[in-house]
């Protein structure tokens, strides 16, 4: 089984995270941020993995530390669970609609961390979450997971729809990219 656990304890957050890439879709999230929990559950559902996250963060400050540290922890677990990456498909780029919103999420599990995004929002917050923290989550996840991540919000009016399409699209991309399709590393270099 491709699985990993991460414990992250800082002065700002305490996180316990368990990830199973080959799970049955069991998802339990408690970040203390309702909308963020909703997004992580959507991502996990469409990725088809088991995910458990419990975070006690300094939400009296704002949501930044909690969101970023969960991104770092999830990325570290993802990288660990993939191991040597032999046989994975590696690339995926689904386009995901949600009502008026349309989003492309492209991923390359390349061991070359990079984020390119065009996230912009009309609202400062969705629920209790500052919208500027979404970029921090995706950046932390991409860097910690050592993958290239492109997020292109092609159209959309409603901020909730736009970001939910992104999380669903990321889940779909992860599911496709981690699928085992062979026994060798998919790289012209022979290594990732």
Structure description:
- It comes from Tissierella creatinophila DSM 6911.
- Pfam families: IGPD (PF00475).
- Pathway: Amino-acid biosynthesis; L-histidine biosynthesis; L-histidine from 5-phospho-alpha-D-ribose 1-diphosphate: step 6/9.
- It is found in: Cytoplasm.
- The chain is α+β, with helices and mostly antiparallel strands and 192 residues long.
- The chain has a single domain (3-177), classed as Ribosomal Protein S5, domain 2 (2-Layer Sandwich).
- Helices cover 34% and strands 30% of the residues.
- It has four helices and eleven strands.
- It has helices spanning 34-47, 64-82, 132-145, 159-177; strands at 3-9, 13-20, 27-30, 50-57, 91-92, 95-98, 101-108, 114-117, 125-126, 129-130, 148-155.
- Helix 1 (34-47) runs parallel beside helix 4 and helix 2 (64-82) runs parallel beside helix 3 (132-145).
- The protein is globular and about 45 Å long.
- The mean pLDDT is 96.
Report the major sheet. 5 strands, mixed
Average pLDDT taken over every residue: 96
**Which fold does the CATH topology refer to?**
Ribosomal Protein S5, domain 2
The stretches of 5 or more residues where confidence is low (pLDDT under 50) are none
Under the CATH scheme, the architecture is 2-Layer Sandwich
Blueprint (SSEs and pairs):
Layout: E1 3-9, E2 13-20, E3 27-30, H1 34-47, E4 50-57, H2 64-82, E5 91-92, E6 95-98, E7 101-108, E8 114-117, E9 125-126, E10 129-130, H3 132-145, E11 148-155, H4 159-177
Parallel strand pairs: 3-4, 8-11
Antiparallel strand pairs: 1-2, 2-4, 5-7, 6-7, 7-11, 9-10
Helix pairs in contact: 1-4, 2-3
């Amino acid at each position: 089984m491709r699985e990993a656990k991460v414990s992250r304890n800082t002065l700002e957050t305490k996180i316990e995270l368990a990830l199973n890439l080959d799970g049955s879709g069991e998802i339990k999230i408690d970040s203390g941020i309702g909308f963020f929990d909703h997004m992580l559950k959507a991502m996990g559902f469409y990725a088809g993995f088991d995910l458990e996250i419990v975070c006690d963060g300094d939400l009296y400050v704002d949501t930044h530390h909690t969101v970023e540290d969960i991104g770092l922890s999830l990325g570290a677990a993802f990288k660990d669970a993939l191991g040597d990456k032999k046989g994975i498909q590696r690339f995926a780029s689904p386009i995901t609609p949600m009502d008026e919103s349309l989003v492309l999420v492209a991923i390359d599990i390349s061991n070359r961390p990079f984020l390119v995004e065009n996230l912009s929002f009309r609202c400062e917050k969705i629920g209790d979450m500052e919208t500027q923290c979404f970029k921090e989550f995706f950046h932390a996840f991409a860097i910690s997971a050592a993958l290239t991540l492109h997020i292109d919000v092609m159209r959309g009016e409603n901020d909730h729809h736009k970001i939910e399409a992104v999380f669903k699209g990321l889940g779909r991309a992860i599911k496709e990219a981690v699928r085992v399709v062979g026994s060798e590393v998919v790289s012209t270099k022979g290594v990732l």
